[in-house]
Specification:
The complex is a heterodimer of chains A (294) and B (338). Chain A is mostly helical and 294 residues long. Chain A is built from eleven helices and no strands. The termini of chain B are close together. Chain B has a domain at 92-302: MetI-like fold. Classes of the chains: A mainly alpha (294), B mainly alpha (338). The interface between A and B is large, with 44 and 49 residues.
Chain lengths: 294, 338
Amino acid sequence: MRYSPAAGIGWAISRCAGLGKKYGLEWWILVAGAIIILAIVSMALFAGSIAPFSPHDQDTGPQLAPPGGEHLMGTDNLQRDVWSRIVHGSRTILRVAVLAAIISSVLGITLGLISGFSGGFFDRVLSLVMDSVYSFPGLILAIAFAAMLGPGVINITLSVAVIYIPTYFRLVRGQTLSIKEELYVEAAKAIGASGSTILWQYIFPNVIATTVVVFSLNVADAIMIEAALTYLGLGLPPSIVDWGMDLSMGKKFLPSGQWWLITFPGAMISLLAVGFTMLGEGLAEILNPRLLER
Amino acid sequence: MKNLARYIIARLLLTIPMVFILLSIVFVVLRIMPGDPVSSMLGGHAPESVIELKKEELGLNRPIALQYLDYLWQICRLDLGDSMVFKQRVTKAIAEKIPATIELTICGILITLFLGVFLGAYAADRRGMVQDYVIRLYGIVVYCIPVFWMGLMLQLIFGIWLDMLPIAGRTGPRVFASTFEKTGLYVLDSILVRDFSALGDVLIHLVLPAFTLGLVLSGIFVRLTRANMLDVLKADYITAAEARGIRHRKIVYKHALKNAFIPILTMMGLQIALLMAGAVLTETTFSWPGMGRLLLERIYLRDYPTIQGVIIMIALIVAMASLIVDIIYAIVDPRVRY
């Protein structure tokens, strides 16, 4: 059969609806989240062609013009187009949040696996450190790290990543401890599998599934921490376009009533976080209904 | 009760390594940081010799390991030291700011509990209906709104457009500071001296910051309450109560909610960290003179002792709050044994 895009879309929609019947509301939460993420990711990818102006162009029109006409979301005090800055700003926040979640998941999962599997003194010390960091307000720790590292995209990514390592560590360590006692691990040991084989081929595949959900919720959280750091003026140099920084600049014009400078960047931060939260919640309900209650 | 006392002591002892680890991380992180308190205190143009002299005086030129051991010894004597930038004891700086943070967080958590528990219970009662979906969506969306943006939008709507509520500070200019000398908790102080115009002023300044903090955190409690209520509503004693003909509303909001509240209480202990982080952002948005603002101001100034002091205090507050929640848990639910 010849491929036609319309038939492809039709198939995808009917497939979606079918799964929707099977899983109910949770499936639609997942789809809604995925659509929001997809929209913002494509905004980031095609920023150059979507944005009508350059985000740094200081001569796009009148100063502090309200939304409407040529400027969909108005202009700021430096005559820059707010919509163009929103479009380009999506790149920064997505890059930082996703990269931070990847770094902390890789470190947290690896340490959790090794710690849970090997046990002993190493495990006890590491668990104590991780528990201490976990119980402390993450944002405040990230503030300290961001202040230490100074402004920069890599630095803010690391500051955000640090605070989520314990989340993965605790989850993976706990699961490793229980899987270690399973019969199939026992069997693998009996036929002479080495420690690293058991760890990576028997335990790791069983642990990874639950971390997918946590990853998605983690990105949502990282988005808000990134925005908070840049809002506080700690994360990025002023040459980079970012929603949090636009928000803190717009804050100065709140008393004089220029609402568009704070409304749009903040709404985008929330929307992106909502997207990842919905994706995570939907996945959680479908993959493992009891996960989020822990 | 003897077991409970033992549990409390064990928990208190456990906070020591936690504070120690956090303190060590922060100590090292601060010393690696570019910039130092002396340069930010004297400005960028001070001559090299003056900076060196001052650094020597503050002991910043000694090996980090020695500074660290000294600081630990100081902490063991329950002394947080002096600020390196201002002539001020760190304990005094924190004592001045801590009531503002406590007042804000207590009001915030009350709003959160009230909204979250009520909406969650209502959603569980109407499971699968439109109200349920709307409340669950509210839970997700409200949790994803950054605290500071929520604050800014409330400022815009209620402070600027409707011009109903003040958007910054703890009091208006006409209220005199002498009213607030007893505890530093302005609500309590103004009640103690029976200054009700001051009380009104204080309360009106509290509304927006407290709601900002309370609304954002209520999302978690909506979900928790709903999940726990769903479990409880399935229990046999609920069916029994229905069979005895007790009014449905009374069953849901009295019988069921009481039992669902216990797991909610344990989760509350875990949310204290989130509450403190939210407070830092709320304080900066509303110019609220609490610990969060103190921390940020001193981070820009590289005032090491004060930053360390604030971090220790926040860690202690989090630990104490979760301990108190655990104790309440043991008292409320006699089945719990430690």
